[in-house]
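Model it.
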Amino acid sequence: MRQFVKVYNFIMSVLGMLCLVGFVGSVLIQVFSRTFLPSTPSWTEEAARYLFIFMVAFGSSVAVRTKEFVGIDMITNFFPKFVNKILEFVIYVILFGFSLFILIKSIPRFAFFEFRMVSTAMQLPMQYVYFSIVILFRFLALSFFIEIILLLSGTTIEKEVIE
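Modeled.
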């Protein structure tokens, strides 16, 4: 399990960073062309937007695994350790269920139907952009499931994210 989690974190981190590099690259092309060229390419703004969407889809699973999401622990600091573990378990189960529910509801809507819409500048079929919802909640559900298993087994895995 430990090896699977490390490989999973590595793959999600690399995919998120590739989207980040593409996002920054398209924004830099847009800034450079607005400053130094007579006309700007119209595809860069759409590319930046779609790469940002996919960066969030891949990065969210890493944030779950490394516990980087914002949480308020002011009240839970007063609870004993076993109450915090129970609370953490309940929260992970609820978030896993929510992610699974959204995933199940989003697959037929975005994954299999042929959309006739295309993006304005890139002429990219919008079903590829909408499929990011399926990707996001699939990896979130998997990440919450991994957290539940690790919590139940008492295994702790230190942060293994590319920095």
